[in-house]
Amino acid sequence: MTLYIAAYDVESGECLKACRRIAAVHRRLEMPATFFVLGTLLESDGAAYRDLLDDPLFELASHTYSHQVLRDHPFCGEAASPEQARREVRLGKEWAERVFERPCLGVRPACGFADGLKGAPDLLRLIADAGFRYVSSLAWGLHHSLPAPLSQPFSYAGDGFPGLWELPAHGWHENLLKDNNAWGPLRITLWPPEMPEAIPPRFIETPEEEAAVNRCFIERAAREALTFVSLIWHPWSLARFDPQMRMLELTFALARELGLETGTYADLHARLTAAQ
User: Fold this and answer.
1) CA of 59: how far to CAs of 92, 102, 157, 167, 268, in Å?
2) Separation CA 30–CA 270 (nearest Å)
3) How far apart (Å, rounded) are the C-alpha atoms in residues 107 and 34?
4) Among positive and negative, which fits the CA dihedral 28, 103, 42, 107?
5) Are 116 and 138 in contact, with CB atoms under 8 Å apart?
6) What is the pTM of this model?
7) Which domains does the chain have, with CATH numbers?
8) Helices in 69-141 by DSSP H: which ranges?
9) Which helix (H) or strand (E) holds 172?
10) Residue among 170, 117, 161, 166 at smallest CA distance from 141
11) How far apart are the C-alpha atoms of 26 and 35, rounded to whole Å?
12) Who has the most CB within 10 Å: 47, 115, 146, 223?
């Protein structure tokens, strides 16, 4: 059965207040989630994040230390130096485990990439040596287009790291659906698109419109009996657009209506390793 994972990239000072609203919805609806949190936020507000997210419903994972990009990215800039990359990976994990006092299994690099970390053995070695069990770095389509396709898990055995899993992310970086990055009109979709039904004609304006875009990915994942589906959400952007978190309620209701299981990226990793 397809696993639905709610996941959040927690990456700015606006996120703590937003995460309070998000966590309240999750607890009320008993919906699990994975929070990928920057190490710098845990360094500055660790006690507050622990009070909020130290809950069996939630997985706490790393979003690196300070959101420096690990590979060259056409929209997010040049890659960090090797020394900076080492700091991003190791300190991100260190702060997650220091604050929450439990193992941090996964990392989502800033921005994500069209090929994940394929062909980047030095980065994969950094991540594996740090003790991560999975990376969630595949978050764009071909040529760094959006939406990201429904790519499914794979190991990095082909790059020499059979014990390290790639657990991708799907759909839109929702902040770009709303122009919350103020990038304005941007050539970012493929032609012809893989999922034209998931490409709105303009920036979305309501939580209902956002939930309708989400539906395209969730229904397709259920219809094709995929291993999992997980959309790319940012607390600061969600709260700015939809402070009542209506979109979350609509999306979670759909996942349950379709009979999807719910869980975290750690749950998905456990399922994959148990099947080996």
Assistant:
1) 15, 10, 25, 14, 11
2) 20
3) 11
4) negative
5) yes
6) 0.98
7) 3-275 (3.20.20.370)
8) 82-100, 121-129
9) strand 170-173
10) 170
11) 12
12) 146
